[in-house]
Batch of 2 targets.
Target 1
Amino acid sequence: MTTAGSVALITGGTGGFGRALAAQLRERDVTVVLADLDSEPNRAAASGLGAHFVALDVTDRAANAAVVAEVEGQYGRLDAAFLNAGIAGKSRDALDVDEFLRVVEVDLFGVVYGTEAVLPALKRAGGGSIVVTASLAGLAPVATDPGYSVAKGGAVAFVRSLAPRLVGDGITMSAICPGFADTAIIDPLREEFAAVDFPVLSADEVASAMVAAWAGAEPGAAYVVQPGIGAVPYKFKGVPAARTAAGETAAVPEALIPPSLR
Ligand SMILES: NC(=O)c1ccc[n+]([C@@H]2O[C@H](COP(=O)([O-])OP(=O)(O)OC[C@H]3O[C@@H](n4cnc5c(N)ncnc54)[C@H](O)[C@@H]3O)[C@@H](O)[C@H]2O)c1
C-alpha cells in the first residue's frame, strides 16, 4: 500500500512512541496530526516534527469526535488512527482502586472512544486502518499494576472482537503489544532495568511495527514487539468448544454471529 498523501491521527502523539511514529510517517509524506494533552511542550514537539497538534484528553468521549471533525475539516479525510495514548499505574499497592479506574479510563476507554470517533471518518475515506497500542501487559499478568494489565488486555479483546466486523468496510484493526521500551513511561523503573542489564526496545523499533501494522496487518492480530525478535503475531490458543450430548463440537448459534460474518 502507499501511505504518501494519507492523513494519520496519533493519540498520545507527543509521547515517546507518538513522536517516533510521527517522524517515520513524515518521512513517508504522510500528513500527521498529534493529539495529546494540551501543553506548550506538546505543541512545540508537534511543530518540531512538522505535524499538526490538537489538544485531546482521550477520556472525553465528545472531544474524540470533535478532534476527528477538526482533522476532516482541515485535511478532508482520515486514513489511519493510531490509538496510542496511555498511562501506567505508579502505586505499588496490590490494589489501588482509584488508580485502577484511572488507568482503565485512559488505556481502555480512551481506545473505545477513539474507535467510535474515527470509524465514520475511515468509512468516508473508503477504508483505512486503526492500530491500537496495547502492551505485553495485555497478554500476561502484571502483579505490580493490575489496572494496566486489565486495560491492555481489554484493548486486545476489543480489537479482536471488533476487527472482523470492520473488514467489509475496508478497515483493518490491529494491536501492537510491545515489551518495555525506552520512553518516559518506564522512567520509574529505569534504574532497576539498568541494574540487571535488562534489554528495552527503542521507540523507533515500536514505531516501525506500528507502520507495518498500518501497511499490512492481519485484521484482529496482536503483534508482540520484543527486543531481539522484532514484531511477531501472538498466537492465541483458542478456548475449548462446547460438546453436544453425542460428543460432537457444538455449532455456535447464528444469533451470536453478525450477519456480515455468516
Ligand atoms: N514504553 C513502554 O515500555 C510501553 C510498552 C508497552 C506499551 N506501551 C504503551 O505505549 C503507549 C505510548 O506510551 P509511551 O511509551 O510513548 O509513553 P509516553 O509516556 O512517552 O507517552 C504517552 C503519551 O500519552 C499521553 N496521554 C496520557 N494520558 C492521556 C490522555 N488522557 N489523553 C491524551 N493523551 C494522554 C501522554 O501525554 C503522553 O504523551 C501507551 O499506551 C503505553 O501504555 C508502552
Note: The two ends are 29 Å apart (CA to CA).
Target 2
Amino acid sequence: MNFEVITKDTRTRARRGRLHLAHGAVETPVFMPVGTQATVKGMTPEQLKALSVEILLCNSYHLMLRPGHEAVGRLGGLHHFMGWDRPILTDSGGYQVFSLSALRNIGDDGVEFRCHLDGSTHFLSPEGAVDIQKALGSDIMMALDDCLGFPAEHAAAAASMKRSMNWADRCHAHFQKVADDSQALFGIVQGGVFADLRRQSAEHLVQRGFPGYAIGGLAVGEPNEVMYEVISAVEPFLPEDRPRYLMGVGTPADLVEGVALGVDMFDCVMPTRHARNGSLFTSGGHIVIKHARYKEDPGPIDSKCGCPVCQTYSRAYLRHLFMAGEILSSVLNTVHNLYFYLDTMRRIRQFIEFHRYDELLTEVRRRSSSAMEE
Ligand SMILES: [Zn+2]
C-alpha cells in the first residue's frame, strides 16, 4: 500500500490524496459504501462501478459467521466471491461483536460471544481478527479494538483504550508473521471523548508504525461538536503521510467537516440504509418519499442531481414503488443516495484542488443552519 498527498488546502487541514492498493487506486478524500454481507444491498458490482465507487467496506463479523471466512478463502477470497475487483476494506469484526451479539466475556486475550444467528459460541482474539481478514483477502484490514459505549467515564475509557492498544500490538505482530504486502493493517485510535487518552493512543500506534490510522469510537451518540473536537485533538499526532480514516461517519455535513479536520476516508450505512427506508438526500436537505405530498409529484428527487434515477423517474413513481413494497424502490433509492454521497466527495476533492475548501465549508454550514431553522 502506498499513499500520496497530492495537495493540501491552505486554510483548512483538508488534503487531496491517492491511495494505491492491491486492487487499484482510490482518490481521497473517499467515501466507502458498506457491503455488510459481501453485497451493498440492492446493488450489483456493475451498478457500483457505474456510480464510480472505488472501494467498499465489508464486515468481518457477518462473513466469519456466514458463510465463514474459511469458505470465502477457499472460494478465492472476497473479491472473487462477490465479483468485485476493486479495493475492499474489512473491519475487524469487533464492533459488531460488541453491538449485535450477546457478549459473554471480554478478557485481555479477546472476546467470547454468542452468534446473533444461531446462538453458537465464538472467540475473537486479535490474532484471529487478522487471520479472518487474511482469509477474506481485503486490501485493508483493521486491528481489533475494544468498543467503548457512550457516555463513559475517564477511567473506563482509559482501560478500554489500553486494552485496544494491547490488541493493536498483537494484531501488528501477527500481521508481520502471516500477511504479505497485498494487504495493509490499519491501527485504530481510541480513548472516548478524552483528549489526553486520544493523544496517548495515537502516539502508541504511531510508534508501532501502521500504514494508516483510523479514529474509532465516534458517532456512538456524542454531540457532533464533541466528535469534531476529538478529531481535532487526534489529528496533530497522526503522521501527514499516512491516510486517516474516520469510522462509521456520517451525514454529508459530517463528511465536509471531517475533511476540513484532515480526514481522508469515511464509511457509513446512512446512504444505503436511509435509501431502503425511503429517506433521500437532496441538495436542499433530505426528503421522506412516502409523504403524501409526493403522490402526484412529477419532478425528480432533486432537480440538481445528475444521477440516472433523477434523469428518468418522478417522485410520484418512487413513492408508488415504496408504498407498494417493490424491490426496485430500494434499488433506485440506493442509486440516488450513493450518487449523492459520491458526488459530495467529488466536490470535496475539487474544492481542495482549487484551494477553496473554506468556501465549501461555509456553504455547507449555512445550509445546515438554515435547514435547522425550517
Ligand atoms: Zn438523483
Note: The pocket of zinc ion is lined by residues 301-302, 305, 307, 309-310, 336, 339 (CB under 6 Å).
